[in-house]
Amino acid sequence: MDDSDLRRLLARGLDGIAAWERRWRAIEPDATLAVEPGAADAAIDELLERLHDNYPFFHPDYAGQMLKPPHPVALAAYLTAARINPNNHALDGGPATAALEREAVANLAQMFGYDRHLGHLTSSGTIANLEALWAASRLHPGKRIAFSSEAHYTHARMCELLGVQTSVLPVDARGKLDVRALEDADAMRDVGTIVVSAGTTSSGAIDPIDTVTRRARERGWRVHADAAYGGFFTLIAGEAAAKMDPAPWAALAHCDSIVVDPHKHGLQPYGCGCVLFADPAVGALYKHDSPYTYFTSDELQLGEISLECSRAGASAAALWTTLRVLPLHARDGLGPELLRCRSAASAAVERAQRGGLLAPVIAPELDIVTLAPLRRGERAAASAISERTEKLFAATLRDRRRPFYIAKWRVSAMLGRKALPAVQWDADECAVIRCVLMKPEHATVVDDLVSALERWPDL
Fold it and tell me: Distance between CA 373 and CA 354 in Å, rounded?
């Protein structure tokens, strides 16, 4: 689908909203809201000029940060619902979109294998993780929260915000939580919750969730899965073509809480995160009494199970509508698109290994590719590799013929000594190339992208 489809769908949506509005008596907009058409056109033109100061996030030659264009259906649904501007904090603020949110969230819970759940959408994965850790801190008061050194930095930040002590656990050579640390008495002292990552944001590494959940049942730990980036890949984890280990993904069903971001691989506009709890009894933690909030239903409402108050009902409408046309299935709907991204990452690493000028740092498990400018068999200092990376980053960005937009990852010496044993660690960290191939169109540019990265010896 392209812009013409978006315009058609949006016109259809707005016409439908206009027909709905005509059910009430006609009103004239207040004069204070009047804007001269010329002034409005000029403001939009100025906005467009400012918006041109962006990288081409929509394009496959952009492989930098985790930015993926929303699907036209999602955009059309979002803008259609935004014309009403419902607020999913309370049922009175958005009865229709509250129902859509419940249905969409139930689909996500089923995707992870939850038989029952409590959950809702959030404005971001950060807020969703905050909510999950808040619940964990109240269910295990005074207990530590443990996570790996490669877990998203917001876990440490949110624990600091909540006043919860933490344990940072080491990772292995693949960037995964090292399960041997679970036997470390000092590291696991007073731990009540372990955070596992279903796709670290640095390399896409998948923690051994199956092993962690088994140990957790024995030790009485809660397990929270941060699947903000990788969660949707659970759809294809059992597909042979994906070349993924299905065991960690199947174990998500045994986690106490899960966070996933539909505004990443769910093709949604920002911001749309989601938090899910396996036990609906967690809802008791949210009990509050507001003198101006009242309820028109006996059912537990979304505003009663969220730390956020105002939440865009348009986000729920967009996700629900998208899942109607691209359902959560492995072999149709979202599945083939995810497989395309996964295959692009595998192909990029295979291409780099054939060339012998780029060394994979972490073998990709999702669609994130990490490469060090290091010849096969070469021994080089971390500082030298960082210098090469910086030059390559600048050169690919400024190439007037065909720029590629990539990212950098600062690998810590602690992980790097395991992942890159040929590197001489004369620094605490080493900058390497990181490419996020999260658009299905990335499969068409793999050879060109790797060829561009192989220019580093000539820079």
Answer: 14
